[in-house]
Specification:
Shape: globular
Largest sheet: 4 strands, antiparallel
CATH topology: Neuraminidase
Helix content: under 10%
CATH class: Mainly Beta
Strand content: 35-45%
Distance between the termini: 5 Å
Radius of gyration: 23 Å
Number of domains: 1
Structural class: mainly beta
Number of strands: 28
């Protein structure tokens, strides 16, 4: 036998190192001492601040070094907090720097969803608590599956994730009922109309059988969703029933109207009915995992920051019960591959994104906020004698 040529050895070595190298992440603690953090976001005003929503009704500010002593806003007297209820998210208007508007999603003392607009006061660290304008109220039949996420899309419209109304198995079949806002993704124009307008490009405008606010349907509990800041693609982490958790994907080119399947399907599997559940019109999730890996998905963000270049383009998501964090990336042909990046071993209630695109996670149980950091781990290289067995 003879040795393979030097160039071939170098090529194989490079390939081997690339195969052995694996992507992993860690978390860096930045805030402690909170009570039930439910959401993390930024104001887009150039300040670099993080706004952390607490389930009990307060939103606080982390200025990059500390949490400010006074909350940005305190809605505790308006909010019910039993079960999955509470102050669930806050979203800042794309023109917040000039108009001072932000929006909140909370469960009121009657147990119903309220979407309201507030304004910042003359102090940029304190909101005007008397500036409330109620935008939308939605009756909730049960205490769970409130959804809760608010996000402004790249189109400037406000997107609202609504759960199916609760209980189990969507007993009222709300997610497939076009006459209710429950179990839907909503899309409204908060810059026009009183209290809002319907975008003319919403998919069901003019259809008397479907509510105009509906952008997509067939969702069970889209607790957290996000837009890719680079492409405008929409990722929806939809919490499953008893077996499957899923991530739904809507490309930026979509004109809306997708039916993501619940309660007909859970993940890519029939739920109700147990067979022949998909007539070909449903949009299936791009990712799913079963309950051997957790029990409740926490949707995240596609990483577009600069501090962790190996994560660029990965969609990060987690399970609330296990603390597993996964990263998923698209292969360029419509398929996604996913890998577990970290067992965080804490209750991940939410991801958040700062102005620079760095990603954070909230530890709901211990009241902590962490920043995601990339770690590179590789197997140690052991020199091998590469032989060409074909030549005697």
């Amino acid at each position: 036998m003879r040795l393979v040529g030097l160039a071939t050895c170098i090529f194989l070595l490079v390939i081997s190192v690339e195969i052995w190298a694996t992507l992993s992440i860690g978390v860096k603690l930045i805030v402690t001492g909170l009570t039930k953090p439910a959401a993390i976001t930024h104001a887009g005003d150039g300040s670099g601040r993080l706004f952390i929503t607490l389930k009990g009704g307060k939103t606080i500010i982390y200025d990059g070094s500390k949490v400010l002593p006074e909350p940005f806003i305190d809605l505790s007297s308006l909010v019910s907090t039993d079960g999955e209820r509470g102050l669930l998210s806050i979203a800042f208007h794309p023109s917040y720097k000039s108009n001072g508007f932000f929006f909140v999603n909370y469960t009121d003392t009657s147990g119903d969803t309220v979407i309201a607009r507030y304004s910042v006061s003359n102090d940029p660290s304190v909101a005007d608590s008397n500036s409330a304008v109620v935008i939308l109220q939605i009756i909730q039949p049960f205490i769970n599956h409130n959804g809760g996420q608010l996000q402004f899309g790249p189109d400037g419209y406000l997107y609202i994730g609504m759960g199916d109304g609760g209980s189990g198995g969507d007993t009222q079949n709300n997610a497939q009922n076009p006459g209710t806002l429950l179990g839907k993704m909503l899309r409204i124009d908060v810059d026009n109309g009183i209290p809002y307008a319907i975008p003319s490009s919403n998919p069901f405008v003019g259809n008397p059988e479907v509510l105009d606010e509906i952008w997509a349907l067939g969702l069970r509990n889209p607790w957290r969703f996000s837009f890719d800041r680079q492409t405008g693609d929409l990722f929806i982490g939809d919490v499953g029933q008893k077996t499957w958790e899923e991530v739904n994907f809507q490309p930026a080119s979509s004109t809306g109207g997708e039916n993501y399947g619940w309660r007909l399907m859970e993940g890519v599997h029939c739920f109700n009915p147990e067979t022949d559940c998909n007539d070909g019109t449903l949009t299936l999730p791009v990712l799913e995992y079963d309950h051997s890996n957790g029990c409740s998905i926490t949707g995240g963000y596609r990483y577009r920051g600069s501090q962790n270049p190996g994560l660029f383009g990965y969609y990060l998501y987690a399970d609330y019960c296990t603390g597993n964090i996964w990263g998923a990336i698209e292969d360029g042909q419509g398929s996604w591959r996913t890998t577990r990046l970290l067992d965080a071993s804490f209750r991940i209630s939410s991801f958040g994104e700062d102005e620079a695109g760095e990603i954070y996670v909230a530890d709901y149980q211990e009241g902590r906020i962490y920043r995601i950091v990339q770690k590179s781990k590789s197997m140690p290289w052991i020199p091998l004698l590469l032989l060409d067995d074909a030549t005697p």
